[in-house]
Amino acid sequence: MANDMNDPQVPVGNGGDGPGGDDDTQTLCQKWFNDYLENPLEADLERAAGAATVGSLGYDEGKIGTQLRVCRLEDAQKIRSEYRGIQACISTTLAAHAAGVTVNVTGYIDKDKALGGKLNTALEAIKAVKAGMGKVHALACKLEAARKDSCNSEQCKAIDKGLPKVDGVGGLERFNNEITAIRESVTTVNGNADALFEMGIKYAGIQASTNVTSLKDMTNKLKTDADALAADVLAQAKALDTKMADQEAALATEITGLSTALYTRQTTKLTYDCLVELKTDLEEIVDQDCAQLDYDATKDRLRYLCETAVSTFDTTAGCGDDNGGGNKFNTQDAPSC
Length: 337
Fold this sequence. Notes:
79% of the residues lie in helices and 0% in strands. By secondary structure, the protein is mainly alpha-helical. It has 2 domains: 2-293, Helix Hairpins (Orthogonal Bundle); 294-337, no CATH class. It is rod-shaped and about 185 Å long.
């Protein structure tokens, strides 16, 4: 009786329609394979399918994350490049020009003060000249009036006798000519002094209207604003350098994670494909007539699949090892068909 229970060709009871035929009975081989196909292989397939789906989703998520990091890094590089252009062509140049303008305006103010001082000195000198020429002119006029006064006829005769003739011109005539020349010279000098005074007043008015000193506040503000702009652009550029370094580090981490996700996707898919292949092979086996089955070839095929899985996933479970643990097809427990 016991031998009948172990005979793979002896029906083992009403097991329903199985993959191996339409009758209500199964051989021991068919029951054994059908039981394995139902549990744990079907459960393993479900878990493997779920793991493969999760692995694929994880890889897709990692790919999207990597693409986002690449875009963020490119955006940071683009903005940093724009700030480099602003720094090189605008802010630094503007700050340098503003500093130069400030220095120039300071020099203009100093020169303007010096010019104002010189103009004032010149005007005072012209005033002094005019005052002196006025005195000389008054004295010349008095001398001329005294000469024409009849009361001074004796003095005029004495001058005429006392001064020698020069080129046939008598002393008195020479005296009169000198007085006339002095008066005319004073008149000319006074005219020139008036012209110079008017010119000085004109330049003083121009100097006052230009008001170079008022430029100082404007140039100081320009320099302050230009320096602030240059400092802000420099600070933004440094911040972008730091951000770019952070994005590069984040991208490297994202790529590492993507590599891990790719490995997980591939291994879970390979596990699922291996189990699908195993199920196909087992269904193919159970559909055959057990009496005509080349069991040695089938057993070798199953062992090959098991050993491939063990070597691929570096598991400690052995093939056909009773103490190995895990869900596996144990060829040592298979009945001899």
